[in-house]
Design a protein that fits this description.
Blueprint (H helix, E strand, L loop, with lengths): L2 H7 L4 E4 L2 E11 L2 E8 L2 H17 L14 H15 L3 H15 L9 H10 L10 H20 L26 H14 L4 H10 L3 H5 L6 E2 L4 E4 L8 E4 L2 H13 L17 H9 L9 H12 L4 H8 L4 H5 L6 H8 L4
Antiparallel strand pairs: 1-2, 2-3, 4-5, 5-6
Helix pairs in contact: 3-4, 3-6, 5-6, 8-10, 8-12
InterPro entries: DNA_brk_join_enz, Integrase-like_cat_sf, Integrase_catalytic, Integrase_recombinase_N, Tyrosine_recombinase_XerCD
Organism: Terriglobus roseus
Family: Belongs to the 'phage' integrase family.
Length: 346
């Protein structure tokens, strides 16, 4: 074998360790210290990373910490992503609670020791506090959170690969969204108005606007325009502002809420609480309504729009759906509708 062929097989600074077979590492001198980094399963990626580090050293760039000598724990990555979440996410409560759950299992682990199989096994074996197996949607949410944590760590130079990237998301088959039937609405209306009359306004506003929970309970009076008759949402999930016209029931509910509030100035909160309380669960139980949560009010809103023959683009705009595919779920067709559609074409 000639010198050129031999050089192609062996690259200086790129190596494998006996205790970590199949994984490629790089080593290089920087500022008088030997640094080592675990790259991944691809030799070419290790070569590219080695060349990148050498270029960065020449440019005087700050390099990542030595991943061999300084064991970075997963809890460090969690702490970093919580800071990131505070800056970039609108609903940090769920991110914080989910990070706490992940941290109980992986917090003390060294980042370099976590593999895809460890994360995937935990996702499949995890159970809720009641012992139930989480839904496919919950599986996907936690998988995405793991991926976010590692992506942020790679940007910060605290990890070199994302082990959650190769984990497949679970397909979601829950195409039918829970919504209130007319009979269920009548039952829960009677119960809430009788037992929690002041809470009825919150419920009407939710059903009549389709706002997400975070949009509704973070609302200030600045966003409620009685003159124009609209709710003006600026801080939405998809980042795009939208206006929702107020029907007479919704406008009456906001007027009643204003009479209950201590601070009705522009920055005053419309709702004192940050989410519906125990009253909602008790009302559902008394009304014998199962598999229904506050977010289901949003599905009821969209379904009622569809039954009123609202166009899909109208539903998309009022609900703030990023894609029209989300809105299309609420358009139901039956045989009579299909037959009427083709009648009179000629």
């Amino acid at each position: 074998m000639g010198r050129k062929a031999s050089a192609a097989l062996k690259v200086r600074g790129v190596f494998q360790r006996k205790e970590d077979p199949g994984v490629w590492w790089i080593r290089y001198h920087a500022h008088g210290q030997m640094k080592r980094e675990r790259v991944g399963l691809s030799k070419q990626e290790a070569i590219d990373k080695y060349r990148q580090r050498k270029t960065e050293i020449k440019a005087g760039k700050q390099l990542p910490r030595n991943l061999k000598d300084a064991k970075i724990t997963f809890q460090t990555l969690i702490d970093d992503v919580l800071v990131y979440s505070e800056r970039h996410h609108k609903d940090t409560r769920n991110v914080t609670s989910r990070c706490a759950i992940i941290g109980k299992e992986f917090g003390t682990w060294a980042v370099e020791d976590i593999r895809s199989k460890h994360i995937e096994s935990w996702l499949h074996e995890r159970r809720t506090p009641t012992g139930a197996k989480p839904s496919g949607a919950t599986f996907n949410i936690y998988r995405s959170l793991f991926s976010l944590i590692f992506r942020q760590a790679i940007r910060d130079g605290k990890a070199t690969e994302n082990p959650a990237k190769g984990i497949r998301k679970k397909p979601l088959r829950n195409t039918r969204e829970k919504q209130l039937s007319p009979d269920e609405f009548t039952r829960i209306k009677e119960i809430v108005q009788r037992r929690w009359p002041d809470r009825w306004h919150e419920f009407v506003i939710s059903l009549g606007t389709g706002m997400r929970l975070s949009e509704q309970y973070n609302l200030t009076w600045r966003s409620v325009d009685f003159t124009r008759g609209v709710v003006d949402l600026r801080n939405t999930k998809n980042g795009e502002p939208r206006e929702i016209p107020m029907g007479p029931e919704v406008e009456a509910a906001f007027t009643a809420m204003k009479g209950l509030c201590f601070d009705t100035g522009p920055d005053g909160r419309v709702f004192i609480s940050l989410r519906p309380g125990k009253w909602f669960k008790e009302a559902l139980k008394d009304a014998n309504i199962e598999d229904y949560v506050w977010h289901s009010n949003r599905h009821t809103f969209c379904s009622r729009l569809a039954k009123n023959n609202a166009h899909m683009k109208t539903i998309q705009k009022l609900a703030g759906h990023k894609t029209i595919t989300m809105s299309a779920r609420y358009i139901k067709t039956d045989d009579e509708t299909l037959r009427n559609a083709v009648t009179g074409l000629f």
